[in-house]
Amino acid sequence: KHGRIDLDIVDYVNEDYRETLSAYFAKQNEILIAITGSGPTNPNSPVGKVARYRGSDESCFVNQRIARIKDYDSSRLDLGYLYFMLLRDHFLEEMRSGVAGTAQANIRFEQIFEYKIPLPSLDEQILLSDYLERIVSRTELAYSKISILENLLRGATEVAIGYGIESLELPRSM
């Protein structure tokens, strides 16, 4: 999902390969960009979508069709700021506009390197990034509450069906 990594459907790697594949571990807060996906006109295509790995180091591998933002000048660029700049629709549109391939779309690494973002002072970047992080935290809390309420609704529905509709007293008007 755009901005999030869905770990509900994953493949697992045998522990025997852990050391051999250690260069491919995702690092906490690393920015990841999907560089391959279905055609660019497919709104569900992952190509060009950006996410940040929030898990712990050495618990998740990054496959070969994912670009990783690893090396950057932290004296000029805040990683959180960069993440939010790449999360914008403009970045996705720019990446998809230059994809190669029709059945399987591919972004060239050059497209990512050539993408221009505004670069205010480092202090301003950090201020903006912190502000957006607070919004993300509130949004994640809201999603969590919604999930809890959806589960409650499913359970209440099952209980109500188990007792039968006739036994429920519904209000006469709503």
Tally of individual helices: 4
**H/E topology pattern:** EEEEHHEHH
Across the major sheet, the strand order is 3-1-4
Amount of beta strand: 5-15%
Largest sheet: 3 strands, antiparallel
Give average pLDDT, whole number: 82
SSE class: alpha+beta
Helix percentage:
25-40%
Report, as a whole number of angstroms, the end-to-end distance. Answer: 37 Å
Enumerate the spans where pLDDT stays under 50 for 5 or more consecutive residues: none
Broad shape:
globular
Question: How would you describe this structure in keywords?
Answer:
174 residues, alpha+beta, two-stranded antiparallel sheet, 4 helices, 5 strands, globular
Could you explain the architecture of this structure?
By secondary structure, the chain is of the alpha+beta class. 38% of the residues lie in helices and 10% in strands. It contains 4 helices and 5 strands; from the N terminus they run ββββααβαα. The strands form 2 sheets. It has a 3-stranded antiparallel sheet with strand order 3-1-4, covered by helices on one side. A two-stranded antiparallel sheet has the order 2-5.
Indicate the topology:
Blueprint lengths: L30 E4 L1 E3 L11 E3 L13 E4 L9 H9 L1 H9 L6 E3 L2 H6 L7 H42 L11
Antiparallel strand pairs: 1-3, 1-4, 2-5
Brief characterization of the structure:
By secondary structure, the chain is α+β, with helices and mostly antiparallel strands. It has helices at residues 79-87, 89-97, 109-114, 122-163, and strands at residues 31-34, 36-38, 50-52, 66-69, 104-106. The chain contains four helices and five strands, in the order ββββααβαα.
